[in-house]
Structure formats: C-alpha cells, structure tokens
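The records we work with from here on pair a chain with its fold. These numbers are not coordinates but entries in a learned vocabulary of local backbone shapes. To see the layout at work, look at the sequence and tokens printed below.
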Amino acid sequence: DGSYIDCFSSTTSSFGKGFLVLPKKQVKANSLKKRTVIDLSSGLLLFELSKRLQIKFEELTVSKSLIGLIEEQIGKTESKRESKMTLYIYSDRVIPHELDDAVYDNRVKYLTELRSWFIENTVQETPVDKLDLKKLYREKIVSGTMDYIIENTLIARKEGSFLVTDDFTYTKYNMIESFVTTEYYLMNKFPEMKKKILAEMLTLRYLGITLDSDDVYDSFINQNKVGLEHIYTYAVRNLTNVNNLDFSTIQTTLEFLKKIALNPIVTKEKYEREATNALSMLVINSPNPSFNYEISQQISKRFELLGEYLNITLNSLLNALKIAKMSK
C-alpha cells in the first residue's frame, strides 16, 4: 500500500533491486554530540542491526507519529486477513496469488517487534511547534505520512539536534540542514564495527555506501556462502556507483583487483572476467575521457611488478571500453 516499511522490505529482500541512499561523502561533517533524532529510514536499519549484531543504541529520539504509522500498518494488515488473494501485476500479465494466514501472522509479528523496538529504545516526542500548523490538520490537508515528516523536521530543527535519515524527501525539498545518513552515523558512532556493519548493509542490498578494497574483496570471497550470493554484485555496484565516483574510486578498484590477482586459487581466466566486469561498470559511469585515461595510467603503475597481470588488466580495460561503447 505504498508504506515506507513495505518499500524498505521489498527493496532489501531477495527479490529487491537495492535500497538507494545518499553517499557518505556528500554529507556535511556534523557533530554527533547533539541530540540524535531518527526516522523510519534510519530506524529500520538500526532495528535490523540490533538483532543481527546485538548493537545497543542509546539516547535516540523519534516523532510520536512514527509509532502511529507502524500501528496503522498493523491495523491494515489485520483488516486484510479476510482476503486470501493478492495480485502480482506485470507489464504483460496479472497473476493471482493465494495467501494463507502465515503471511499475515509474520507481517504482524514483524511490525509488532518493530514498534516495540522503537518504544523501548527511543524517546517519543510531539513537537510543540506543531500547534502552529493546526489549521492544516483541521482541514485534513496533512496525511499520516506528511504528519510524520513534519514532526521529524520540527524536532530535528531544534538547536542541539540532528536527524539521521536515508529519506531523500528532506534533501529534495531542502527541509533540514543538520542531518547525516545512517551510514555516516554508524561509521562515526561504532568505528570498531565498521566491517561488520557494512557487510550487513551489503546483505540488505544498500546502494550508495562507501567501501574500501578489503570490503569488496571480502564480498568476493564470501559470495559462495548461502544467502550471500548477491553481496559481491552489490559491492561492485557500490564501488562504481555514479554518485560515489571520483579518482579515489580508481585506486580502490585496482587495489581490489590486485588482491584477486594475488589469490592463488583464482585462475587467470577468472581474474580477467572479474577485472572486465569491475572496469566495465567503472567506465560506464565515467564522468569524462580523462577519467578513463587515469584508469589506464594507474593500471600501468600499480600492476608493473605483477608480470602478465599487467597485460591482462590492460586488455580487460580495452574490453570494458568496448562494452561501455555498446551500452550507449
């Protein structure tokens, strides 16, 4: 029904195509010694990490309407129990799908646990400033979702506060200046858990996060584990994300490829395929020809002492340039 919770669940599921976030490098440096306000977009990830990594989050504030949104979803789910059928709509067909009670039970269980987490780990607040908008509420101009966004904005705008969010609504409409992304918050708040947190974000198909060569290499090694088959693909997508791209990306990509080249288990043929794949995604998102020239220069420099891997990598770059040309 278009709820943010459903959006998060669908984009991070095994059928999802990725949860897009603002890259950390595009966020202004912000002190985390202020009051921390979170919303659904950040809270959903913190909820997952608290279960997966047993991270304890303290001194968090949310808008009271956020709890109301979750309760609204619980109510809607319960009201749909009588319906045993849903429709999957594709461009060329509509497929009916029968639902059993377990589907509704699991959704209510998840939503109830989510609500409990927010209640137990945050302070819920209704901003006093909201009274200035009573005319909008009286005339029913404000929907439940808009109510939640307004409350978040008013609470986070208070002096000494900042918002942790991955919701593009705030940046699109320039609603708040003092904010950070969830990745920024987590990397600064829990630096000792950086690797584990980023691994979980990859598992959840986040797009826009900042990875180093070790992160990408780890995903390359772990992609054969059950349930993690997608993480390497998402690591490369993050590494070469057009919003994350700069000259340091070339260095990170080549450092990662060197790690593969030095792995005795990886054959030269497999290395060439992986190099072509990574360089193709880098070149396709290349901002200008000088960027591609820099890739070539850096390959010659960094693979100079790696014997035939220098020629293999340069050949992979040529193949990547051909692929990029065909894709346009």
Summary: The CA atoms of residues 5 and 40 lie 8 Å apart. The beta strands are 19-20, 35-38, 60-63, 85-89, 94-98, 122-125, 161-164, 179-180, 206-207. Residues 134-138 have pLDDT under 50 and may be disordered. The longest strand covers residues 85-89.
